[in-house]
Amino acid sequence: MKWNNVQTPSAFLRGVTLVELMVVVSIAAILLSVSIPSLKSMNANNTASRLINELKLDIGFARSQAISLSTTIQIIPINGSWSNGWRVLQGATELRSRGSTSNPIADSGVISSTDYNSGTPITFDNRGRAQSTGSLTLHVPYCSGNKVFKLSINQIGQLIQQESACP
């Protein structure tokens, strides 16, 4: 049996023209330029959610440890800045920490408080009550929606979260 060489029509062998390629590249560039601001906002919102959850988790941990161990537990900002991170302390013993001065958990000013600082840390007594009331504010630049958070701690040690719109 002999096979014949089949010739394919030249229409099937055509490539992509330069004009067609330029149209596709232009469409891709337009789509990318439209989506980048949305990605920036989405990243900021994810960062805000992660930070507020970590902060709430560690405040709850500190209060729980104060009750369980029947002792005083403190949460202090690292090097005076909440954006650097914080340490959970039982006296001089560190129970947990997040961040450091060399590897901060957020940009400067993202987490702030006028009530709590190194001199006035968040402190829970052996019954889980806060020694002083106050709040922390978390605002990540370029966020969208209700992603500015305020965490308030009342005298009984209850954590109250408020959300407000991003500017």
UniProtKB/TrEMBL annotation:
The chain crosses the membrane at residues 12-34. Keywords: Cell inner membrane, Cell membrane, Membrane, Methylation, Transmembrane, Transmembrane helix. Residues 52-156 form the General secretion pathway GspH domain. It holds the Pfam family GspH. Its main location: membrane. Gene3D superfamilies: minor pseudopilin epsh domain. Signal peptide: none annotated. This is Type II secretion system protein H. It comes from Thalassolituus marinus.
